[in-house]
């Protein structure tokens, strides 16, 4: 017996349909965040490239962080701004998708590309037979799998397995590093210097926990264990909030960066 099945080839993003009465304040907030992220990350990249005092590995890696945020932010926030004004947006399936220093940077970019490429290949093999409305502000993995009429159990397993080393290993390494830093801070005799060091570390840890906590919940916890609204809220945190905090916490509060800004302004 033949069964007629209509395959879906086009999707619609409808993330903020329930915020019609708050368009202006929501649009204003996200616009300020977007402009702030662009300006702060561009400033960090320019300062590290032009200031001789910042030509050290730590600032080189911070400039790479700013570069990644600068490439990532325009993919998400303009879509959020558009969806706030126009709650339904059409999207094709394509939307889903020193020497040591150079090697480390290349490894980070390459691993990210390979992970994304593999997930996209698996997503393109899914079939969509019924609904074509994505309750999200970009084509993330979990919202798309929810719409598929194919068996997504293998893809869910792959996403969790690939996300674990990408997310957990860096997080564990960072936390071990900060434990060592805190133990060193506790040995500082000056109360004033110890409080200042704790203040700096606490702000860094806040951003780290916010970023990796949301990624763990979204991609390592089995998809479907949390609601669509929770997904959107968590996605806003790591796509909009942490990219704004990163340049502020890691660079713009740094004394060397402040000196470079003053020198740059006086040019």
UniProtKB/TrEMBL annotation:
It is found in: Cell membrane. InterPro entries: GPCR_Rhodpsn, GPCR_Rhodpsn_7TM, Olfact_rcpt, Olfactory_GPCR1. PROSITE patterns: G_PROTEIN_RECEP_F1_2. SUPFAM superfamilies: Family A G protein-coupled receptor-like. The chain crosses the membrane at residues 29-50, 70-92, 104-124, 157-186, 198-221, 233-252. GO terms for molecular function: G protein-coupled receptor activity; olfactory receptor activity. Residues 104-250 form the G-protein coupled receptors family 1 profile domain. The keyword Transmembrane applies. GO terms for cellular component: plasma membrane. It is a multi-pass membrane protein. Keywords: Cell membrane, Disulfide bond, G-protein coupled receptor, Glycoprotein, Membrane, Olfaction, Receptor, Sensory transduction, Transducer, Transmembrane, Transmembrane helix. The keyword Kinase does not apply. This is G-protein coupled receptors family 1 profile domain-containing protein.
